[in-house]
Amino acid sequence: MSADAAELRSLTRRFLAAHPPATTGREDFLRARFDAGLAWVHYPQGLGGLDAPRALQAVVDAELEAAGAPDNDPRRNGIGLGMAAPTILRYGTDEQKKRFLRPLWTGEEVWCQLFSEPGAGSDLAALGTRAVRDGDTWTVDGQKVWTSGAHNARFAILIARTDPDVPKHRGITYFVCDMTDPGVDVRPLRQITGEAEFNEVFLSGVRIPDAHRLGEVGDGWKVAQTTLNNERVAIGGARIPREGGLIGIAARTWRERPELRTQDLHQRLVTLWVEAEVARLTGERLRQQLVAGQPGPEGAGMKLGFARLNQEISGLEVELLGEEGLLYDDWTLRRPELVDFAGREAGYRYLRAKGNSIEGGTSEILLNIVAERVLGLPPEPRTDKDVAWKDLSR
Ligand SMILES: Cc1cc2nc3c(=O)[nH]c(=O)nc-3n(C[C@H](O)[C@H](O)[C@H](O)COP(=O)(O)OP(=O)(O)OC[C@H]3O[C@@H](n4cnc5c(N)ncnc54)[C@H](O)[C@@H]3O)c2cc1C
């Protein structure tokens, strides 16, 4: 079935009548919403969707919000919803889709991303975590780093080296890793904000069934491109209203606190306001492109702009607030469940925004992607393209 807006509105109203939010438990409501195809309407039937155009999700959401229905608190499971789910949908077997997507969407199972390693960040394909096959099981050994939310996660998307004898991009395989496996050791990493939002993860003899492999053996790099393209959209492409996000917070302070204003800050605020609006409209264009298929490399440009704007706006806010901007809660070693830009103070926003130009690909790497894959400029020289991974110098 491919529904139109009127059909979806009426379907949602019938669903609400059968599951009144006031008297239905949150988990039951979310599971039933998934089963009714109203979770992400563009997903296939039976997997939380109705094969409907993605843009129609807004119709469903508006009805549910007006009825006071609980949502799945998407910020708690950004990696699951934004990155793991589209990858499972594209490369997963029917059993994998059935097993993973429902509890992922409802938030009962939170996901994290085991990609980066101490020696493989920007050059992710150089990764050294090994997965060795023994019949129907793989044994994984290695170390991952900067793993956001690993301390809350039930599952992880993991890429590991399965063939060291071929060039680095070709010997990687993509898995789903159960974070409750006894060989998974999650240790907090303290960051510039003082808290430990991310972790280093040691994998020692972790047993992964072959049934938890996503895509073909050796195809992990290709599968990971779906994750990474979606990651850039997930980080930089959230739908926000005009004057939403960080520019909204800075503009509100500006309006409410006339005593803080200077001519120079006014000029900068207006310039950033215009740039934020251009970025927001670019995000809308990108989402329309998403309606037509998977996100392409254009997401890199979106994320690039998002990182620069977040850093400049949060810097302006700290300057605007003067001494007050330097006040900071003690978040030392707290383990937050989510990154909450709006709910925290200016100092937190300023410090946390520094990570925006590193996470999901550094701004330098994103510039390379835009240059090569959007503008068609000549690629960086790659001398290791045809060298077996085991022969690379490390
Ligand atoms: C807040 C945050 C959350 C994160 N969450 C996760 C997560 O959940 N899971 C996960 O797997 N990873 C995560 N990461 C890791 C992130 O993806 C890496 O930090 C990032 O890819 C950069 O890798 P690196 O830190 O090893 O830096 P490096 O790759 O060592 O880069 C160091 C510097 O060199 C520059 N550089 C490197 N290569 C080039 C080049 N070819 N051209 C120009 N400049 C270059 C970089 O831009 C950078 O400035 C997170 C990072 C942050 C900051």
H/E element sequence: HHHHHEEEEEEEEHHHHHH
Shape: globular
User: Which ligands appear in the coordinates?
Assistant: flavin-adenine dinucleotide
Main β-sheet description: 4 strands, mixed
Say how many strands there are.
Answer: 8
Largest sheet, order of strands side by side?
A: 1-4-5-8
Characteristic key phrases:
single chain, 394 residues, alpha+beta, four-stranded antiparallel β-sheet, 41% helix, 14% strand, globular, binds flavin-adenine dinucleotide
Q: Would you summarize the structure shown here?
A:
The protein has 394 residues and is of the alpha+beta class. 41% of the residues lie in helices and 14% in strands. The chain has helices at residues 5-18, 26-35, 57-66, 78-91, 94-106, 220-236, 245-256, 263-291, 298-321, 346-353, 363-374, and strands at 111-114, 130-134, 137-148, 155-161, 172-178, 184-189, 198-209, 213-214.
Describe this structure in words.
With 394 residues, the protein is of the alpha+beta class. Helix content is 41%, strand content 14%. The chain is built from eleven helices and eight strands. The strands form two sheets. The chain has a four-stranded mixed beta sheet. It has a four-stranded antiparallel beta sheet with strand order 2-3-7-6, with no helix packed on it. A hairpin with a 2-residue loop joins strand 2 and strand 3 (137-148). The model has no long low-confidence stretch (mean pLDDT 93). The structure holds flavin-adenine dinucleotide (FAD). Flavin-adenine dinucleotide is lined by residues 112-113, 115-116, 121-122, 146-148, 198, 355, 358-359, 361-362, 364-365, 368, 380.
